[in-house]
Write a structure and sequence with these properties.
Elements lengths: L1 H12 L3 H6 L1 E8 L5 E3 L1 H14 E12 L5 E12 L13 E13 L2 E9 L1 H9 L1
Parallel strand pairs: 1-6
Antiparallel strand pairs: 1-2, 3-4, 4-5, 5-6
């Protein structure tokens, strides 16, 4: 199952949404940081398209953990980004750069991701882009 998580993050860094979607089950539950749970690939794709408009991000310092039976995984990494376009309810975008620690948690079934939960410190991000 480490391969599925690795492919998912490689696709993220390549900005290849289709390859990310290929790692997900049709009924994936996406638990967005500070947001509502989105169910299904279509809503995940919409979220990715929105994020691509507003942010340019690359993940580094990746460490992936998978439990013994391959049904759950976690990843810790650093988000290196540029705030491209103002996102509703957030500070105005002016090409600010940011760097913050983040993590994702996954449920896995039959070689696909069935749940993605992402966490980062929103207050830290706001402080960085507001400086």
């Amino acid at each position: 199952m480490t391969d599925t998580i690795t492919r998912y993050f490689e696709a993220f860094n390549a900005k290849d949404i289709d390859a990310m979607l290929a790692c997900l089950s049709d009924d994936v539950a996406h638990h967005v940081n500070e947001g509502k749970i989105r169910s299904g690939k279509a809503l995940f794709a919409d979220f990715c398209a929105h994020m691509s408009r507003c942010y340019d991000e690359n993940l580094t310092d990746m460490v992936v953990f998978v439990n013994a039976d391959g049904t759950r995984a976690a990843a810790e990494y650093t988000v290196n980004g540029t705030y491209l376009a103002t996102d509703a309810g957030l500070p105005e975008a002016q090409q600010q750069t940011y760097r913050l620690p983040a993590g994702s948690f996954f449920d896995l079934r039959d070689g696909q991701i069935t749940r993605v939960t992402t966490y980062y410190n929103l207050a830290d991000w706001i402080a960085q882009v507001s400086a």
